[in-house]
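User: Here's a chain of 119 residues. Predict its fold as tokens.
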Amino acid sequence: QVQLVESGGGLVQAGGSLRLSCAASGRSFSIYQMAWFRQAPGKEREFVARITSTGSGTYYTDSVKGRFTISRDNAKNTMYLQMNSLKPDDTAVYFCAARRVNLLAYEYWGQGTQVTVSS
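Assistant: Prediction complete.
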């Protein structure tokens, strides 16, 4: 069992930056592939970025490439999302998720943190 808690959201002007954190409880954080998703009002939840269990591999959706960076610190049981050059379209609730590497679906989800980007 893994519990995930996001933090770091807030209100920022377009062009600004935020860093989200996802703190995981429980053991064996390092065996989980982690990801960030987001859901804007009236829209479906969408994938943002993922990172392998060791942190050696990352993947991003096209709309955030070059602006967002996903990382993790397995010693601290924490994953991060550095968001730069934020746009109003990035406004959403951001969720972190975890899954074991042999599974396709994400098993554990956080409660979400709100990111609002003003124009």
